[in-house]
Write the structure tokens for this entry.
Amino acid sequence: MDYASRHDGVGFEQFAKVRRRTTPHSSLNPLAQYRKVFSLDEVMEAAMVRLSQHPAHVLPHRRRRGVGVLCSDAKLKTLDPDVRRRAVKISASVLTLGPLFESTPPADVSTLTSGPAAAAYEQSGVSPQDLDLVELHDCFATAELIHYENLQLCEPGGAGDFIDRRGPWRDGPSP
């Protein structure tokens, strides 16, 4: 809400558009938790659970796991050609953590994202305009809007316009 109050063109409709955008994407995945495609009206008219948050804006709490196997270039060359074909090169990896103790002042989510993003772009020699796909965890639709800017997918204050012009959609410039 703070981000919306500081930037024109960001409000409840833009939060709803984030969720509206995700549903056609997840509907294509037979393993997705939610496969229903919501209209913008359905998202906006859902029962409110707290200020500007509807159930459609919040992912349910479920345990999720993912595994990645990392190896050197030398090791990769010894593996089966099919494995080599499917390998993904990691050009940069940057990790940040928020405060570990309750007595620590709350972390600024923008700093925790924008700093590592800038470092990863620098390490990899890649700019946001070079990206073909962005994997962004959207635990809350409101947070996703903030991260568009933090990841430099739009200009400062431009998250509302970015979602309005379908920037992060599958057919947009930064899916």
In short: The chain is about 40% helix and 0% strand. The longest helix spans residues 12-27. Helices lie at 2-6, 12-27, 40-45, 73-76, 81-86, 109-124, 141-150, 159-164.
